[in-house]
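ingest -> validate -> predict -> emit
validate: passed (alphabet ok, no gaps, 572 aa)
predict: started
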Amino acid sequence: MDSATLRYYSQNAHAVAQRYEDVQSPMASHFARIFPPSGRILDIGCGSGRDMAELNHQGFQAFGVDATPELVDLAQKAHPELAGKIEHGRLPDLGLPFNGEFDGVLCSAVLMHIDTADLLNAALSIKNCLKVNGRLLISIPTHRADADDQERDAHGRLFKTYSPGYLRLIFERLGFTLIDQWENEDAMKRREVEWVTMDFQLRSAANTRPIDQIEGVLNHDKKSATYKFALFRALAEIATQSPASVQWLSNQTVGLPVQYVAEKWLQYYWPLVESTTFIPQMNGEAPVSGKQITFRKRLSQLVVLYSTCGGYSAFKIERNKGLLPGTTQRLLGGVMTDITNAIVKGPVEFSGGALKTGYVFSFDAQTRQILIPGDLWIEFSQLGYWIGQAVILQWAEKASRLGKDIEVAHVVRLLLDREDERNTIEARQFFGSLPNLECVWTGVRLREKWDVDHVIPFDLWHNNDMWNLLPASKTANSKKSNKLPSTELLRDRRDSIIGYWETLREKNAERFDKEAETLIVLPSSNWQNPLYGQLCHAIEVTALQRGVGRWPPCLPLGEESPTPEKSRRISL
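emit:
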């Protein structure tokens, strides 16, 4: 703390203590809401002991430190119940008063006396006193009209006016999360002083946020293979497109069935294995080498089976329809077992080895779930698209370094999903067989010329599932283009969307249900509303995160008027 400020409080301790004791604590009403019942709370800069006495009265275990020895003595005399619970200590080098491990820290009217050069160390000292998930309650002045150009008052005290945004940046970089903040009047009714109070929670013991963990694994972890890239890409895609696939657990983690990640890996690695140019995926891997990724052998056999009849797209359609021959089904089972073992025994076990926070994931063998910290999953959910794009590039660069004369751009093309007309052709054939076909977006009758529209554009999700392919007029499809349907349009055309889904599901329930898992695992009955709700959720989140334009619910020029009756169900 600033020496001139300390000198003032030392010389005027009695007057200062009396001023504080004469007014009610502006923080007292927040203690019970913010701090855990009966918790150990440290008051940094406890002054007269007023707030400590209130904490004690409310049932907390109150401890305090102050930078002025005179105030330490006066506080214990004014509040005998605090005897032995206050000691001399000051920021930025506070140490661990009373052995640390506090459930909460109160730091009221203190940080304003800390110079900018010492602020980060002061924040670190505060953090070191707290348990993980502990709460920090800070009060600082945002305006003092009585401070001069050197940020000192008439008594020479330092009064820094740190903006709440700047303090938030400092503390969140150290693992805190801002829970709430509010403005409050000066307890001493001084018009020239305005205050803000901030409530933080310490989320991480290390100086990292979830995004720092992701960056740390991708850029600093040892990678002898491309497995970590594949895992992080899968998590990013599942978090943004299939949030209902995880189970939120009581210990602030989420459980993600490993089968969903394995399904993604099959999709990612298929074109790499299929490539006529051998593209190594681990150190030392070569066509004739005995050292290869664990699932290459059986995946290669599966790839060969479909090499002349449509590749991965044909395989996926046949598998989702439940039409795989027994031998192919057994081969697929072996491939998925190999992939699952590679996931669990590779990146799930070892991601985070280079981080101070330690390993990131774990695996529950009983539930077959990958366990992911909740805050990390939220980060994937919010930034998944950008994480996925970055991972694809890093993956391609790794493969290029492993191989000879392999261009990064070539690997990127293989890793990016390619739109396959097979699905839209199948959808066109099916919808074309229906009588009284109407545009899903306008309701107009469709005759000879019409299109199959991706509800969520392919460029955004790379998705060709049945639920995402619906008939639309050429005009509507052209105007919608790569936009997402507006909230009003989705609401207005709900019955038409669900009607087509019901018809598609009646044609092939096994395939429809399997592909609907992208959004939600369908309940055995009354599945329509949950699936429709998840579609709307996915569209709204995608629009917000990607900044995608929305197509308004207006009738395109040149179309016929909508049919007067909106059919919930399209007749076969």
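The domain at 3-202 is CATH 3.40.50.150 (Rossmann fold).
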